[in-house]
Every structure is written in structure tokens, then in C-alpha cells.
Amino acid sequence: PLQPDVSRVALKGAESEVSFDNDLDGSDMKIGIIRTRWNDEHVTNLVNGIKEGLKECKVAEASVFETSVPGAFELPLAARFLALSGTVDAIICCGVLIKGETMHFEYISDAVAKGIMNVGMSTTTPCVLGVLTCMNEDQVKARSSGNNNHGVDWGKTAVEMALLRTEAM
Ligand code: DLZ
């Protein structure tokens, strides 16, 4: 009785609240997507959303590099390798972590978020945290499908940050 029924609140707070400049021009930008193979179906939906967001920002399909790693824990190191290769202007790390019965979720979520932040800070290549951390699959679906696919925002975030980096450096 002390456990809330999280499936009933899956949609609460799921809607994206960020707005973007309609004129974001990523036509000169090269973007890397690193995705996990864990939770493959959901991550594929998110990656499709990312590509939609990149397209809206005029990023050419040929300028999008995509690769995969097993799970979310592998994302930061793969992002560092890609950042250090100097071949992309921004990186989106995409995955889905779902809470299980142990503390694994808490440790991994924290490590992955900090790891991705560290890659951006240490390399100056913007690294987008495109990792959903959810209590169950209903929460994941509410954030990765239909007209509330957070991947779209992550694609636009990558372009905005890549442009900011060009201005700053
Ligand atoms: C082991 C594990 C578990 C239990 N759950 C997930 C998950 O929900 N999402 C995800 O991306 N990866 C998961 N992993 C795998 C770890 O991220 C990692 O791949 C392994 O611990 C090997 O380092």
C-alpha cells in the first residue's frame, strides 16, 4: 500500500515544455547519435524522433553519423571517443533506463548523466543527455512515441548547442 501505482501516473509531466527558435540552421552541422541496444524498440522510436528534430533544423541526412553500444553505461566512453575524433559538432547519447527490483537503476542513471556531462565539459563537444530514466514502460512510451517524442527536442538541442559552440570558439 505504500507503493504508488506508477502506471496510473505515466503521463503526468510527460509533455515536453521546452521551446526552440524556429530558425535553427544546422545545414553546416555534423551530428553523432550514439544509441543503446538495450530497450531497442523504445530507443529506435527516440532515434526516429531525433532524426525528425535534426531534419526540422535542416541537418542533412548524410551529416548524421549513427552508432550503437550495448547499454546506457557504455554511452559516456563511446561519446568521448567520438568527441575526440573531431568528426562531429555535437553528440546525442540516446538510451532508456527502466527501474528494476534492485538499486542498479539509481547507480547507472547517476553515472550516465554525470559521464555524459563530463564528456561535454572536457572536450567542448556538446553532448546531449538523451536518456529516459523511467519507473516503467508506460512512462517510457509516454515520452518516446506519438506527438510527445522527446527525441525531437534532443535533435534540436544538439543543433542549438553546436551553433553555440561555433559562436563561442
Ligand atoms: C544491466 C542493465 C540493466 C539491468 N538495465 C538496463 C537498462 O534498463 N537500460 C540500459 O541501457 N542498460 C541496462 N543495463 C546494461 C548496462 O547499461 C550495461 O550495458 C552493462 O552493465 C554492461 O556495462
Automatic annotation (TrEMBL):
GO biological process, alphabetically ordered: riboflavin biosynthetic process
Record GO terms (molecular function): 6,7-dimethyl-8-ribityllumazine synthase activity
Keyword set includes Transferase: yes
EC number: 2.5.1.78
Pathway in which this enzyme or protein is active: Cofactor biosynthesis; riboflavin biosynthesis; riboflavin from 2-hydroxy-3-oxobutyl phosphate and 5-amino-6-(D-ribitylamino)uracil: step 1/2
GO cellular component, one term: riboflavin synthase complex
First-level EC class: transferase
Catalytic reaction equation(s): (2S)-2-hydroxy-3-oxobutyl phosphate + 5-amino-6-(D-ribitylamino)uracil = 6,7-dimethyl-8-(1-D-ribityl)lumazine + phosphate + 2 H2O + H(+)
Record's keyword terms, sorted: Riboflavin biosynthesis, Signal, Transferase
Annotated family: Belongs to the DMRL synthase family.
Function summary: Catalyzes the formation of 6,7-dimethyl-8-ribityllumazine by condensation of 5-amino-6-(D-ribitylamino)uracil with 3,4-dihydroxy-2-butanone 4-phosphate. This is the penultimate step in the biosynthesis of riboflavin.
UniProt name for this protein: 6,7-dimethyl-8-ribityllumazine synthase
Organism in which the protein naturally occurs: Seminavis robusta
